[in-house]
Amino acid sequence: MLRDKSLIPLSRQHQHALALCVRLDRALQAGSIDVKAWQDEIQQIFEQEVRFHFAAEEKELFPAAEKFSEMKPLVDELLAEHATLRSLFARAGDLQETDFGALIESLAQHVRKEERQLFEGLQQVMSPAQLAEIGAGLQQALQEATKTCAIPNPATRLRAKS
Questions:
Q1: Interior CA angle at 155 toward 153 and 160, to 5°?
Q2: For residues 7 and 22, what is the distance between their CA atoms, to the nearest angstrom?
């Protein structure tokens, strides 16, 4: 289903999160990684985008979704996942190479659940006017997110296979 324009800002941020997951997974598969560089990048991404993303969803999106009884269990799951992910991000500076897999799995699974279940479900049960109202609230809530592009440091960039 085509994404409603009101949800596109969150979907773009989801793409950023999935890109982080792919890059980190590929780095792990390639072998030895610079743990400190990845710790720093994960912390930066949380501070510049993820924390604002979670807050916007919790302030605007989840309360609107909970008005539909069929969405309530999903919202409860997503809130629990936010708590787990916040915990992982909060200890970004202490994450070790063995912890990165849990972050990748949790974050990727969470993003896909929001895209495939929450967003799709909302687009089926809400009117265009309701979605537009949510979109206006999301726009306001996401204003605090950094508008700069986070460029990976050289140690965390994907490299072409030799």
A1: 105
A2: 23
In terms of Cβ atoms closer than 10 Å to its own Cβ (0-12, 13-18, 19+), residue 131 is middle
The confidence score (pLDDT) of residue 31 equals 86
The third-level CATH classification (topology) of the domain covering 5-145 is Four Helix Bundle (Hemerythrin (Met), subunit A) (1.20.120)
Cβ atoms of 23 and 56 within 8 Å: the answer is no
Query: For a pLDDT cut of 70, what percent of the chain falls above it?
Result: 89
User: Phi, psi at residue 3, to the nearest 5°?
Assistant: -75, 130
> Is the pLDDT at 67 greater than 70, yes or no?
yes
Residue among 22, 28, 38, 26 at smallest CA distance from 155: 38
pLDDT at 160: 55
Identify whether the C-beta of residue 133 lies closer than 8 Å to the C-beta of residue 75: no
Among 12, 28, 10, residue whose Cα is nearest residue 104: 28
pLDDT in tens, 77-95: 999 999 999 999 999 999 9
Q: For residue range 143-159, list pLDDT tens digits in order.
A: 877 565 555 666 666 65
Other Cβ atoms within 10 Å of 79 Cβ, number: 14
